[in-house]
Design brief:
With 651 residues, this protein is mainly beta. The protein has no helices and 53 strands. A five-stranded antiparallel beta sheet has the order 2-6-5-4-3, with no helix packed on it. A five-stranded antiparallel beta sheet has the order 29-33-32-31-30, with no helix packed on it. It starts with 8 loop residues before the first strand and ends with a strand.
């Protein structure tokens, strides 16, 4: 009987922080790689939310709403009428070939104000990019003077756009611009080059070099306050930050310390920087807006930062990786998670108690001590629970290069290096780890036409595994293109095939097997994703294939990349990463790129169970998700879902 879900998403372990585009107040809102920002006359902060492709408005009480949707907004400025001019790109049909400035009026109307190709920095005005390799310079910075003229830079060129959109060159900087601000006097300040150099360009294009700024370590960004005073955000030793105030002649004083590290989780402090009328400093940091008052007190103004890592504990005190987290559930409701980034497994009880299985050191040793403290994992990829409650994990190990398998030509193999072998590991209820299978089948590298016998194997993936209710284990041997069944009683047989997709086969399909499940009739379902770096080569990519007993694989649902419900090929997925099956034969897919959970009935009808709207972790009866990667069904009606840094249940 098919389960009936109430529709409630609950957090089991980890936290709700991370990127997204949820509207809300303060910590209920989510931002995704926010960039440039500026205050309007009413005191609202407009933010170029680059990762979500949105312009967000943040009121003085921290309420975040969405003003406009447009591609890759990176910086913005606001004119006296309240219109927002957004610097957007780089992008293009055939690569990063252009940037645009888009005008968004106060009532939300959009129009393209100017378009710029990405040009080589030359002083001869030809900008023909004739030589190879070509040096491309994106537009950097945007500002507006009181007359409504818009300014930006490309390489060393300072570009002026009149209110009618007429483009001219105001002047040429001594070095390439890193950031700019435009004062009400009409002067433009630019941070240039790789050192701590700041210049001022007047309305006639004349450049004045300012003195070195007060032993600045690394200038991050410039900003003007409401009085037109120039401030410099500076990173000091150890990554800490401070704000310096500079007078028109470049003499600087220490304004305040800012207790934020300049780089955390890959998100850079100060891509966005603004000062309000009360001299509070607002900065972007780790997918949040931070507020630093005049007393250097820092608080999160909007958004919630993620706490990725590896920490055992109960509920929100536990921390998980930001990468894929394959998941399975045993008959007692215990959640088992493969965490490749930490070379370990995580065991999560129903009350959210999280423990680590493994010593978190890359290796392939077994162990019998409680919670696997003396065992090690190399790259745990796929995890399954058999009908008997046994937990199985696919992993890698290495042995010295030996004789070539008879079916492989020596010309296809990198010889003389360690050989990656897929292993199937068994984990007991107490955490003891043993190896039940070592496969001599090969795994494939990203080039897909050579077998990889290298210890540089971050791109290698162990086999995808699955189990059925009888305790049989199924192994998808992607290198050999076969599916092997290991019976609970000890037998072994090939029961299906995996689509062989690599250069040289003449197929226009190039994708990666990410998950596999088996139904009660021994039909096997295979889930395929496509790496972003090769997605432009593919046709039918993000899909589910069905392998009936004795049959070849056929596409069951999906194909073209995108988001659409429908039957069979009408449906679209985007980077699907995990899949599970319930007792009635319904499939559930963790559709990572669409931040959703999709349900697929036995007749291949695809619907959206969770998500399909905004991105971000939100619990309750109106849930949303961020990049779900793992999913497992637990009878009588619970889905366990993993996202970066968190574990959820859906009932």
């Amino acid at each position: 009987m098919a389960p009936v879900f109430k529709g409630e998403l609950r957090l089991v372990a980890g936290d709700l922080g991370g990127p997204g585009n949820l509207d809300g107040v303060g910590a209920d809102a989510r931002l995704d790689a926010p960039g440039g920002m500026a205050f309007n006359a009413a005191g609202d902060l407009h933010v170029a939310d680059t990762g979500s492709g949105l312009i967000r408005k943040v009121t003085p009480n921290g309420a975040v709403t969405t003003l406009a949707k447009l591609p890759l907004p990176v910086d913005l400025a606001i004119d006296a009428s309240g219109s927002t001019f957004v610097l957007s790109g780089p992008f293009g049909k055939y690569g990063e070939t252009e940037m645009v400035i888009i005008k968004v009026t106060a009532d939300g109307k959009q129009e393209q104000f100017a378009e710029f190709p990405l040009l080589r920095d030359r002083m001869d005005t030809s900008h023909d990019c004739a030589n190879s390799p070509c040096e491309f310079f994106p537009l950097v910075g945007i500002g507006i003077d009181p007359a409504g003229n818009v300014y930006t830079t490309q390489g060393r060129r300072v570009i002026k756009l009149s209110t009618a959109g007429q483009i001219s060159t105001l002047g040429v900087l001594p070095k390439v611009a890193k950031s700019i601000v435009v004062a009400r006097s009409g002067s433009l300040y630019a941070h240039i080059g790789d050192a701590n150099e700041i210049v001022r360009m007047d309305a006639a294009g004349k450049v004045v070099q300012l003195p070195d700024i007060l032993d600045a370590h690394t200038i991050i960004r410039l900003v003007l306050d409401q009085n037109d005073d120039l401030f410099v955000l500076d990173q000091v030793a150890g990554g800490a930050s401070r704000l310096l105030k500079a007078d028109p002649n470049g003499t600087a004083t220490h304004a305040r310390d800012i207790a934020l590290q300049a780089n955390v989780e890959g998100h850079t402090l100060g891509k966005g920087l603004a000062i309000d009328k009360d001299s509070n400093v607002f900065l972007t940091w780790n997918n949040t807006l931070q507020k630093c008052d005049q007393h250097s007190r820092v608080s999160t103004f909007a958004g919630m930062q993620a706490s990725y890592g590896h920490q055992d504990g109960i509920g929100t005190s536990a921390a998980f990786s930001s990468q894929d987290l394959p998941v399975a559930v045993d008959g007692n409701g215990t959640i088992w998670i493969a965490e490749p980034e930490s070379y370990s497994l995580r065991k999560v009880s129903q009350n959210g108690q999280t423990l680590t299985i493994g010593n978190k050191v890359r290796g392939s040793s077994n162990g019998t001590s409680p919670i696997g403290a003396d065992a090690s994992f190399f790259a745990p990829k796929s995890i399954a629970v058999g009908g008997t409650g046994k937990v199985y994990v696919s992993d890698l190990k290495y042995r010295d290069a030996g004789p070539f398998p008879s079916s492989i030509s020596a010309n296809d193999v990198y010889t003389g290096k360690p050989v990656p072998l897929t292993t199937i590991r068994n984990v007991s209820a107490s955490g003891g780890v043993s190896t039940v299978l070592e496969s001599t089948g090969m795994t494939w590298g990203l080039d897909m036409h050579n077998l990889v016998w290298s210890n540089e194997s971050l791109n290698l993936a162990p086999y995808v595994i699955a189990s059925d209710n009888a305790g049989n284990i199924y192994v998808a041997e992607t290198g050999w293109g076969s599916i092997r069944k290991y019976s609970a009683g000890g037998g072994e047989s090939i029961v299906g095939s995996v689509s062989r997709e690599w250069y040289g086969t003449g197929q226009a399909v190039f994708s990666t097997l990410t998950a596999m499940v088996v139904d009660a009739n021994e039909n096997i379902y295979l889930l395929y994703d496509t790496p972003e770096e090769v997605s432009y080569l593919t046709t039918e990519t993000h899909r589910i294939e069905k392998v009936s007993p004795g049959k070849m694989p056929v596409i069951f649902a999906g194909g073209k990349t995108g988001y659409a419900d429908g039957k069979g090929a009408e449906a679209k997925f985007n980077r699907p990463r995990g899949m599970t099956i319930d007792d009635a034969g319904n499939l559930y897919v963790a559709d990572m790129g669409n931040h959703s959970i999709r349900k697929v009935t036995p007749d291949a009808t695809v619907t959206t169970l969770i998500g399909g709207g905004p991105k971000g972790k939100r619990t309750g009866m109106n849930p949303s998700l961020e990049n779900p990667t793992g999913i497992a069904y637990s009878a009588p009606g619970t889905l366990v879902i993993t996202t970066p840094g968190a574990v959820f249940t859906y009932q």
